[in-house]
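[Q] Does anyone have a clean structure-token version of this?
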Amino acid sequence: MSATNPQPGPYDPNQYGTPQPPNQPPQYPPGGYPAAGHPAAPPVYPGATGMPMQQSNGMGTASLVCGIIGLVCGITYFLWVLAIILGILAIIFGAVGKGKVSRGEANNGGSATAGLVCGILGMVIPAIYLMALDAAIDSVF
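[A] Here you go.
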């Protein structure tokens, strides 16, 4: 009898050849050194922090905006109530903004100072108007 290869059937596992081995991960040289083309990670120093903290300039800016609007409302006689409210807010925001600048959390000390000054003036001008109105009413009656 002679050994003949049988014809492969429709479900013969050897019909398409032997299976290929799966892809292997790249082999690195011994000794723990990175392969060529891969830079080493930078050293980490004790006490080193990640990203620096961003400046929060919102209070100084809010103080400046409230102070300017309060000053304009204070110059306009019939908006004196709004001028006093915005002046108080500008003084509060300006003080908080100046505190943040002194702690290094913000860098807009000029805006906070300008808002504080505008807020004070926005409160003083209506007070002067009201005192002048009171004096005028007292002199008439």
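[Q] Thanks! Anything notable?
[A] The chain has a mean pLDDT of 82.
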